[in-house]
Amino acid sequence: MSASSRLSDRAIAPQATPTNVLVVGVGGQGVVMVSRVLAKLCERNGLDIKQSEVHGMAKRGGVVFSHVRFGERVYSPTIPEGEADIVLAMEWAEGLRWLPFLKRESGGLIADTQRIVPPFSCRNRKRGALHGYQTMGLEELEEVVARVVAVDATGVASEVGNRRAANTVLLGVLSSMLDFDPSEWREVVAEVVPPKTIEANLLGFERGREWALQETRAELPTPPEPERPTHAADRVELEIVEAWCKGCDICVKVCPERCLELNGSQVAVLRDPAACSGCRVCEWLCPDLAIHVRILPAQEEH
Ligand code: SF4
Ligand code: SF4
């Protein structure tokens, strides 16, 4: 995990001029949860807050964004282009797409380096399919954005035991940029997340916050390249987390090789492993992050 700048020394205190936070992601990532946390924090602190949200499709790939504006008095719920103090992006390309909304001189971008490649950008059906996904390295980004934090929030969340806690890792980073009491952040996060996930989410929040507050400037990360096979005999391993699958059928419908199905318990299973090409479309589009595709070198096969 690494950062491109330290932000805590410039925490934004709510003032007469509204503070503008734009939260962006794709369907299922918890954009609305993040804006709910901000709204509750503002209410506790007696601040005026206005929000406007666009809900995407209930699947990965559906874009979701939320404008959050707070201060002593806020009149409009929408952040004009060029006026966002912070863009918090739960997906790398979404962060890039919303850059024009940042304040040119002082705006900060917090972005998960996770990539969710939309299916329409896939150009073939082979393993590690090539795609037309938007890319931009951190160094390029730093030339056009005043402050950038790129964090492997999904990786951190996996380390603390719940991949879906990536949004609270990002909230931890955000907490270092906004002048609210850290104990209030923790209380509000615990109020908003599902009860069974409080521990993992609070841990994720702490990890994000600690990391953002660290003293040293870490090495710049590059967004991960999609895993690609190196040999025709590479093996695909597909894991479906049964407890997370809600049986929505999306993966079954989008699989180009028609090798998935729902079993009698309405859980997705790999019906025909030999047909699976490892294209990752099911992984990208599962709204519950229940599918993980791994491409292993042939020599690792037992
Ligand atoms: S794994 Fe389950 S939740 Fe995910 S897309 Fe397939 S059916 Fe839906
Ligand atoms: S199961 Fe998933 S990775 Fe395998 S071919 Fe279908 S969509 Fe692609």
Task: Explain the overall architecture.
The protein has about 300 residues and is an alpha/beta fold. The chain folds into 2 domains: about 10-215, Pyruvate-ferredoxin oxidoreductase, PFOR, domain III (Pyruvate-ferredoxin Oxidoreductase, domain 3, 3-Layer(aba) Sandwich), CATH 3.40.920.10; about 235-300, Alpha-Beta Plaits (2-Layer Sandwich). The protein is built from 9 helices and 10 strands. The strands form 3 sheets. A 6-stranded mixed beta sheet has the order 2-3-1-4-5-6, with helices on both faces. Strands 7-10 form a two-stranded antiparallel sheet. The model is unreliable at about 1-10, about 130-135 and about 215-230 (pLDDT under 50). Bound molecules: iron/sulfur cluster (2 copies). The site of one iron/sulfur cluster has 13 residues, from helix 9.
Rg (CA only) = 20 Å
- Termini, distance in Å? 32 Å
Report the order of strands and helices. EHEEEHEHEHHHHEHEEHE
Which CATH class of the largest domain applies here?
A: Alpha Beta
| Shape by Cα distribution | globular
CATH architecture of the largest domain: 3-Layer(aba) Sandwich
Category by helix and strand content: alpha/beta
CATH homologous superfamily designation of the largest domain: Pyruvate-ferredoxin oxidoreductase, PFOR, domain III
Q: Quick one: how many beta strands?
A: 10
Mean pLDDT value = 78
**Whole-number total of structural domains:** 2
CATH topology of the largest domain: Pyruvate-ferredoxin Oxidoreductase, domain 3
Instruction: Enumerate how many helices there are, as a single number.
Output: 9
What is the strand content?
15-25%
Describe the strand arrangement of the main beta sheet, using strand numbers: 2-3-1-4-5-6
Helix content: 25-40%
Largest sheet: 6 strands, mixed
Low-confidence stretches are 1-10, 129-133, 215-231
